[in-house]
């Protein structure tokens, strides 16, 4: 397929691999973090680790939205699904994430009205067709996904829909990168920045990482040649002792990002502090519905019973999301915790580090 | 859920477009695109085209990739 096949060429991949070997030879150990789960998936699927010298260590980052959604969010989502006339709609990845006592999948099998949708547009359509039901959409995702929810909320407002609601768990990537940049336990020498988040936010938000923390940043596409070239660009920056923001994925990412999308985000959402699974509460890292859109906010529209969230036992998702542990260092990995019976979120979503490691065996 | 693929614009109807990739065809929101045209390629994620693919820049990247030895 166009824009996929040509970025998977084997011969070019080998050439880039040789160039990386050559340029990394005298650099000592290098830790590169791929922030985005889709990069993790691509690295595992295409065997990128096998094309790199031993001194380059690729660390998976916090960029899987399902994985960083805290358990308390899921417990509340389950509580919403128990309310009368509510139909809970969600991306499929959320279904099997374990909450404190149950999962959306288990609740659905008990008869709760929970439906998987491909797009928030499907949830809006459901609201238009079923005026006797309250359709609640679980708004999960980073800057790639939040504009799609913003567009649907703008549409719902225009159409004056009274039965469409969003429970926003949306998060913003750069604040999490800054926390990791500061963390001595992680020690990152370079960030491979997400492709499609950057299509929305542009190159600007990474400047603080490259400037203040002196960590090279390269925005890279998701095809194997993109990932390899991104790694080569990072190695070249490290080799020349420089740190700036580079864009490998110029065919999609503009320096200014997508202004139509960011304008809509600013209108529909307000920035707030937000809880990240494994990382903690980060300042200005989440999105809630703005005052103009508060009547669509599920948390404001419904009064929920008190929900108690229990801590994780044995699951090392938190350390995996921060890049402190690899999935295989978790005792549960591929034993008690599998995609069929996941103990933590990182084994559920296909972009989760544990799921990618399990599926492709590194 | 983060899956996003390059798809081609086949038809435009208001703020939606019919997009295709291989045998897959579906409608996608084009609210975020500036001046979308039939035949252009876009990245489609969760029912929306989030950005266009610039064919000149794609060619330029491929040329640079071919030069790496």
Overall geometry of chain A: globular
For the sheet with most strands of chain A, the description reads: 5 strands, parallel
User: Judging by the overall fold, what is the CATH architecture of chain B?
Assistant: Roll
- Remind me, CATH topology of chain B? SH3 type barrels
Number of strands of chain A: 11
Tally of helical segments of chain A: 15
Low-confidence stretches of chain B: none
Helix % of chain B is 10-25%
Q: What is the number of E strands of chain B? A: 5
Structural class of chain B: alpha+beta
Layout of helices and strands:
The complex is a heterodimer of chains A (362) and B (69).
Chain A: H1 10-24, E1 30-36, H2 37-45, E2 56-63, H3 65-68, H4 71-81, E3 86-90, H5 104-109, E4 114-116, H6 120-129, E5 134-139, H7 146-158, E6 164-168, H8 173-182, E7 190-193, H9 195-201, H10 207-211, E8 217-219, H11 224-239, E9 245-247, H12 259-268, E10 269-276, E11 280-289, H13 298-301, H14 317-321, H15 353-360
Parallel strand pairs in A: 1-2, 1-7, 3-4, 3-5, 5-6, 7-8, 8-9
Antiparallel strand pairs in A: 10-11
Helix pairs in contact in A: 1-11, 2-15, 7-12
Chain B: E1 4-13, E2 16-21, E3 24-29, E4 41-45, E5 48-52, H1 55-67
Antiparallel strand pairs in B: 1-2, 1-4, 2-3, 4-5
Descriptive account of the structure:
The complex is a heterodimer of chains A (362) and B (69). Chain A has 362 residues and is α/β, with parallel strands linked by helices. Chain A has 2 domains: 316 residues, Rossmann fold, CATH 3.40.50.11740; 44 residues, no CATH class. Chain A is built from 15 helices and 11 strands. In chain A, strands 2-1-7-8-9 form a 5-stranded parallel β-sheet. In chain A, helix 2 runs parallel beside helix 15 and helix 7 packs across helix 12. Chain A starts with 9 loop residues before the first helix and ends with a helix. Chain B is an alpha+beta fold. Helices cover 19% and strands 46% of the residues of chain B. Chain B has 1 helix and 5 strands. A 5-stranded antiparallel β-sheet of chain B has the order 3-2-1-4-5, with no helix packed on it. In chain B, a hairpin with a 2-residue loop joins strand 2 and strand 3. The mean pLDDT of chain B is 96. The interface between A and B is large, with 52 and 36 residues.
